[in-house]
């Protein structure tokens, strides 16, 4: 048995084809397990965990930069398609509520991220990007584009997604207002001309980002283009579930394969303090929800989901399966994503700089 394992290790470390096969098989196993326990983002987390296993076992395969940029573009199209123009009216009519709900969450997350960086739980901008509530996949992509360690950012973001989703699901279930989950149809009828147009938007976005040398441009340009085209009725952004699943799988694999044993050990040592920071943020956002309930008359479950610091996609799933004001929840979450995408790079640099100044003082 030992001889067989030794021979397999030699073959594994020397042949890329074996590593790709192991990555694919391990990804399938992890995805099946995570979906069986109804964990959100299983299609990204499964390949990410598989990538970590392969990467820390001596694997040297990598997802190419072009494919990684393509996954960013697909995710950008997804976000752009999901942003309805109606959020502008919703935010305008109830702007005081939005200011309190959105900015308080961003500020509290920034303070916790700065604290983790100051106490050296996680390094510099990685702690700040990891704490930022703006959609886990988008924050990982943005963090990588602006020089943070995407591995640690992904670790923080998806640990928070797990915690936030678990708590939000329990709150929705306890309220007695949760609806049964609807199974995903992976291969629905596809509007092929619209899909070709969507892929063209993504490809042109990647090309423009490279030509203009815009950091995170592969995410932002398709996001803006898809939002404009979709809301003006110029084009239907077609993103079938199987395409999104493929994009998430590539993104997860790209992140996981970059992990090393040292990074895994560092993440394990930081786990108690990172988890404590996440729970503090969830409790603080629940406090903001109480303010919205008492001062603005917002329904309690609606207020909680609207201020929840989880990923936009997972909060949207919970909101759509619960008896809440879905438009209000998604509008506040969307506004927060837009603000974070705009100020995130500046905020990360500013807080990281302040951390260094305070340490050297």
Q: Which radius of gyration do the C-alpha atoms yield? A: 21 Å
The share of residues in extended strands comes to: under 5%
Q: Shape, please?
A: globular
* Fraction of residues in helix: over 70%
Query: In whole angstroms, how far apart are the ends?
Result: 58 Å
Number of structural units classed as domains: 1
- In this structure, how is the largest beta sheet organized? none
Average pLDDT level: 83
Features:
361 residues; mainly alpha; 16 helices
Topology:
Elements lengths: L1 H13 L1 H21 L5 H15 L8 H18 L3 H8 L1 H24 L5 H8 L4 H10 L4 H25 L17 H21 L4 H15 L9 H16 L4 H36 L3 H8 L4 H9 L5 H35 L1
Characterization of this structure:
This protein has 361 residues and is an all-alpha fold. It has one domain (65-360). It is 78% helix and 0% strand. The protein is built from 16 helices and no strands. Helix 2 packs antiparallel against helix 3 (42-56) and helix 4 crosses helix 12 (241-256). The longest helix has 36 residues, at 261-296. It starts with a helix and ends with a helix.
């Amino acid at each position: 048995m030992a001889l067989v394992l030794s021979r397999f290790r030699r073959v594994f470390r020397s042949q890329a084809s074996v590593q790709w096969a192991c990555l694919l098989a391990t990804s399938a196993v992890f995805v099946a397990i995570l979906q069986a326990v109804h964990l959100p983002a299983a299609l990204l987390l499964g390949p990410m965990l598989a990538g970590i296993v392969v990467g820390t076992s001596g694997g040297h395969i990598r997802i190419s930069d072009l494919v990684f940029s393509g996954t960013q573009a697909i995710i950008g199209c997804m976000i752009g398609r999901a942003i309805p123009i109606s959020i502008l009216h919703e935010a305008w009519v109830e702007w005081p509520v939005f200011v309190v709900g959105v900015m308080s969450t961003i500020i509290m997350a920034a303070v916790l991220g700065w604290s983790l960086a100051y106490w050296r739980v996680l390094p510099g901008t990685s702690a700040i990007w990891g704490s930022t509530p703006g959609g886990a996949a988008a924050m990982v992509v943005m963090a990588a584009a602006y020089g943070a360690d995407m591995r640690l950012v992904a670790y923080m973001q998806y640990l928070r997604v797990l915690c936030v989703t678990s708590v939000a699901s329990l709150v929705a279930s306890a309220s007695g207002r949760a609806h049964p989950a609807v199974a995903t149809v992976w291969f629905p009828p596809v509007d092929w001309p619209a899909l070709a147009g969507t892929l063209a938007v993504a490809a042109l976005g990647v090309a423009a980002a490279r030509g203009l040398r815009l950091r995170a441009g592969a995410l932002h340009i398709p996001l803006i283009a898809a939002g404009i085209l979709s809301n003006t009725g110029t084009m239907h952004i077609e993103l079938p579930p199987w395409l999104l699943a493929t994009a998430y799988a590539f993104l997860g694999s790209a992140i996981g394969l970059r992990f090393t044993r040292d990074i895994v050990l560092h993440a394990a040592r930081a786990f108690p303090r990172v988890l404590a920071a996440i729970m503090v943020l969830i409790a603080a956002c629940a406090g903001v929800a109480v303010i919205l309930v008492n001062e603005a008359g917002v329904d309690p479950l609606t207020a909680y989901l609207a201020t929840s610091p989880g990923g936009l996609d997972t909060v949207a799933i919970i909101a759509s399966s619960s008896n809440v004001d879905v438009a209000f929840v998604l509008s506040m979450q969307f506004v927060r994503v837009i603000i974070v995408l705009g100020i995130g790079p500046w905020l990360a640099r500013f807080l990281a700089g302040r951390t260094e100044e305070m340490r050297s003082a």
